[in-house]
């Protein structure tokens, strides 16, 4: 942990002392972070609240070096020694922040049927390494803010490629080891991402909608009809909602689980989507590819919440799956939900989305400080003592949750020390004279929207505030 803290301090290029002490205050403060300025009251933050905001607004972080440091820490692995990565988008909602730039419409889930909403904010794509078994721990590796109108599949493919390249450079993966498994949810185009990462040692596992239609391979040998014609590229349809089109499954497994009862998985080999020259494939050069994979249908006897039990459809980029591969895929997909616990920790305990920052670059700096704090919690996991509340159950030393490890981090901080230098005495600035008005109002920005042509959306002039015609003459009698 000391080596990581030294590398973290070296990656802070400007306002390094203020940013490093802010990260320490985030780790040592007791209880959830409610406001950003409360961290300035922590003993670990020896500077004033002005230095706190100056560090976020004017500081600089060597993100590339910090990413390499995150890739070099010990990472969890699956039972076969494989790295399992999960990619998901978590929004930082800013619905009323009209002076914030680079906002996009973020999809949010509401309680109840049809309660989903699109709320303005900053969406962040986060990559995390998953552990085995039920746990609230993940290893965060990367985070990028999605620009308005960004191609999610293309951005995710580039992000995953760079993460895996850093893992290979750090010695986390070597030739001859199992390929890295990347798990995606239903909002991603898994076949396209697998096509973009075909040259990497990566396997893609993604969830599919239950109304999808895939295509089977062309029967071999193919018999030419009497009227002639070229051989077809696609076989018969595989309709998820029509069992008559499924045919015989290539593999069927049944596993007894504690929470879900009997889990039954069926797999069909060499299924692919039929691509058309529109949307992401409109500018593709050459013939459209045939992206074959394995479709897995998972059903369970019950749900822990008692909700409606629906089948889950998965698409794996590998072919020729056996029973062991099928079980490995659906078990890895269930572990993807561990990243939701990490998002809840970042937002509710570490206060990731609490600050009301105006600049998106400052939001990126704060995000990287939160990721660095979470990495230090992982490294302190075997070292922290269980400072449990009187009403909490005792936990094994290596079974502490991230929030309980954070309670004892202040004791570890006293032993590890800090590379930040002591603050220098200073006086506050004069500020704005009393009674004077702000002559430089902040610029207002529209929420980023992109048209079908790729151009950014601009609100019409007659829709903007202050452009409506006003009556200047006397009212009519």
Task: Describe the protein in words.
By secondary structure, the chain is α+β, with helices and mostly antiparallel strands. It has a domain of 123 residues. The protein contains eleven helices and 14 strands. Strands 3, 4, 5, 6, 7, 8, 11, 12, 13 and 14 form a ten-stranded mixed β-sheet that branches. Helix 2 packs across helix 3, helix 2 packs across helix 9 and helix 5 crosses helix 6. It is globular and about 90 Å long. It comes from Streptomyces roseus. InterPro entries: IS701-like_DDE_dom, RNaseH-like_sf. Pfam families: DDE_5. This is Transposase.
**Percent range of helical residues:** 25-40%
Radius of gyration (CA) equals: 26 Å
Sheet having the most strands: 10 strands, mixed
> Structural class, from secondary structure content?
alpha+beta
Shape: globular
Beta-strand share of residues: 15-25%
> Uncertain spans, ≥5 residues at pLDDT below 50?
467-471
Question: How is the topology of this model organized?
Answer:
Blueprint: H1 2-10, E1 12-14, H2 16-28, H3 49-58, E2 60-61, H4 63-72, E3 84-93, E4 104-108, E5 117-130, E6 138-145, H5 152-169, E7 180-184, H6 190-196, E8 202-208, E9 213-215, E10 237-239, E11 251-257, E12 261-271, E13 293-300, E14 312-316, H7 323-335, H8 338-349, H9 360-379, H10 402-407, H11 409-416
Parallel strand pairs: 3-7, 7-8
Antiparallel strand pairs: 1-2, 3-5, 4-5, 5-6, 8-14, 9-10, 11-12, 12-13, 13-14
Helix pairs in contact: 2-3, 2-9, 5-6
Protein name: Transposase
Organism: Streptomyces roseus
Domain Transposase IS701-like DDE: 8-273
Summary of the model, kept short:
Residues 393-477 are annotated as: Disordered. Strands 3, 4, 5, 6, 7, 8, 11, 12, 13 and 14 form a ten-stranded mixed β-sheet that branches. A two-stranded antiparallel sheet has the order 1-2.
